[in-house]
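Changelog-adjacent note: as of this version, every example in the card shows the full chain rather than a window. The one below runs 678 residues end to end.
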Amino acid sequence: MTHLAHRARRALLFVAAMATAAGAQQQSECARDTTQHAAEDSSRHTAHQPTALPCVRVVASTTKRADAATTVVILPTVIRTVPATDAWDMVRQAAGVQVHLQGQGPGFASDAAVRGFTSDHSTDVSISIDGVPVNETVSGHAEGYADWNAMMAEAISGVDITYGPVSPWAGNFSMGGNVDVKSKQVAVGTQWSARFGSYGDLRLALLTGDANDRGGWMLAADAQRADGWQQNSREALGHLMLNKVWLGPGGRTWTLSASTYGGKWDSPGYLDTAQYNAGDLTTAQDTSNEGNEVFGTVRGAFSLPAWGGTLTSALYAHAGWWNIFLTIPPEGSGGEGVGQQTQETDQRYELGGETRWSKKLSDVVGLIAGLQYRTVTAEYQRWLTVDRQRETPDEQVQALYGGVAPVVEAHWDPTSAWSLGVGARIDWVFYGTQLIGGGSYSDFTRTLVTPKLSAVYRFTPELSAYATFNGGWRSSDGVIQEPSLAPILENTGEFGVKYASPKLEGSLGFFVINVRNQQTVDPITLEPSNGGTTRQQGVDLSARGGIARWLAAFVHFTVNNSHYVNLITDSGDTLSGKPVYQVAKYTGEFGFDADWKGITGSLWAAYMGSWTPVDEPGTLTKPYTLLNLRALFPISGPWSGVVGVQNILDQKYVEVQAAGFLSPGKPRQVLFTIRHGF
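Full-length structure tokens:
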């Protein structure tokens, strides 16, 4: 037996053992369709693989279960080949999610605007990696602050993006939706890649491991650096991950993993609109602006038969620290927004996990019940500084968070055509806060109940309709200082139709969202306004059709009419009837996928409509369209290459804007990658 055949045999043995243990269906990387939407299923994920469409884009399952929703699935091949240097941009390009770059370094979290939520630093989108939350609770910078760059592309087995608070297992911060990142369990052999490109971009990645019928392991690492396209925008970051899986008799599995991520960067600062209009896009505001961060996570999990069903449980420990020096444009108040450099530091320790028990009660009824739990201790400081030298303390606070949530969901198929779903979670949350060095202590406890209801009707195996009603919530910005602040509450409804056949697939969904206790937060100065209501309503349209066996066309378009019903800012401005800040009414993408003689790739145009900058009611940004290209081609044996071009036409555009200041978008960038084994 050859060495290659021996490796393949060991991989097959491991896959077979994992399938037996988990009872899961395997998902091929063959299809990629970021425009196809599917039912979100908290217990399993399947893939529809059309035989007449090129195997380039993610193709998710047809609607099989009652917890239907608008969902995008990104497979590993896409993750590793889109022309993106940051995780947030990878998701934006691969899934068409509206994400705005803050532009101040990889650790300065970007803004994901999903379903009409402004989502400063992605605070309205719940992000998790193998069940470990990325959103930071009791955060002084932004409650729910989420750094997308915790993801490592080579270690990802898939990304599921669900729009809206559909899953009962995604609680706090999931108002716009949730991003569920799954890491690879094991690797067989060694794979590596090297990327280089514009603006001094260089990245090295390694994936190695082994597997057999008793389990396996994986080690993944990467290192990346770039000079940046603006002055004072150098950056460096890296990941390290180790995962070990043991397979036991009777479908038992145990997993232990450890991971770390760190980065260091310089920040160019923000431009004013006069600089942008004059074409002065590269000037640094303050060359002493910089940041760094480091995080570490240890996670253990098991799955085993119990009480006639399956019991799974995971427990994690997480520690993190970040430090940012940044000059915030003047806003006429103390703290941030005084036109002076500030230093922010955040240090936190966290324990958490979840336990689930699932059982098929009959041929038509399934039940999943469990418990989620999380506790956090955090320390946040903000100083006024000059050239990174501290002058005056502005805020120094330490905080505690505790949360426990029993969760239940049930699915019933009364007929072969109908599927019904019902679920709920009850969140008990605790916040405590005290000034560092003493001062009065305050805390607050509250309970929140969020229902999950859904129904699916299948007209034919290809055509189905769905309807959902879900509640959601997130803790408000400022809860680290005032634990009694009311959370932001949401009720959302969605209905739509889906079609999937070998030559054509598509979906059409309509959504309406009502939000209470709404906040709007300036993404630059971080000043919040509280207590309003908003309504977001719109349409998602997606389609993909085969032109030839090697060529397909796709389109995804969203109309999002989001406006404030009632909100008065702290400065006295009335926003009632005005568009929700930083949310484009029209977004879309159109392009072609090809798979020809071993070469796979995509050429697509991404359109971003105009949107209203924060604190600039009546102002609209200029819409823009970015043309992008990616291609994967074989070289010889295990060697392959990837070329990607982002913003081919070198368009000038705005990423984020507020109160007369902005961060410009990245100009044309070309990336080349050499891969071995991937």
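Structural remarks: Residues 120 and 523 are 6 Å apart (CA to CA).
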